[in-house]
Amino acid sequence: MSSRARRTIIVVGAVFASLGLFVVGFVVYASLPYRADEDAYLAAWRSNAVQITGTDRGFVIEPTTTGRGSEDIGLVFIPGARVEPSAYLFRMAGIVAETGMTVVITRPTLNFAILDSRPLETFTADAPTIDTWLVGGHSLGGVRACQWAQSSANSAESPASPEVVGLMLFGSYCADDLSGSGLAVATFVASNDGLSTPEDIAQRAKLLPDDAITFTLEGANHAQFGDYGAQAGDGEATISTDEVQRQIALSTAEFVQQIRD
Prior knowledge:
By secondary structure, this protein is of the alpha/beta class. The protein contains seven helices and eight strands, in the order ααβββαβαβαββαβα. β3, α3 and β4 form a beta-alpha-beta unit. α2 runs parallel beside α3 and α3 packs across α7.
């Protein structure tokens, strides 16, 4: 074998070895998510207002009482990157208790929603009695929710997908143009968000319908859309977790009422 051939083999081997190390490193990184705060997690499970069911795909949160008029509406919620799905149980349980709607929290592939290629119906199947759906997510999960919303709006692209009537973005924004989709859209902005800043969200608002609603959570930061502790690069929160939950729940009830009207 010539020295040139040997050098080529060495270079190719080094490239594949580096690629392998990168893949292994990423898998390890993705497999170490931000963990759910135990107190908030347990508070959600102990609530008498909701019933939580764990599945291989995530969690289903249903109301324990009826009569609030939103029992036929569901939200499929996608967690942010590297955040445990259970870190959103307390926040989403507040929405269910206030509105009577059902929330399905997904468990993304490798904790990164953008890597999850499963269709929306994978998750809506966990709540078969629901016939009106919203999609939403936190941070990178919201970006993935926008993709689902766009696919649903294009019936020729995915005729078998569940019908989506609305989109909810929590500290997030779309990369896809949904301005002509006709969807009802609610954007939740944390004033002290250091990752998806209010300025970043405002700059991308042109990708949403003109009648999209913005709810601002004064004093909240990026990590307070869930319960998983501090996040590098985030702003400082000056509002309590309980108050964030209350405001999100009440704003969601207002948004859902507008959809029903």
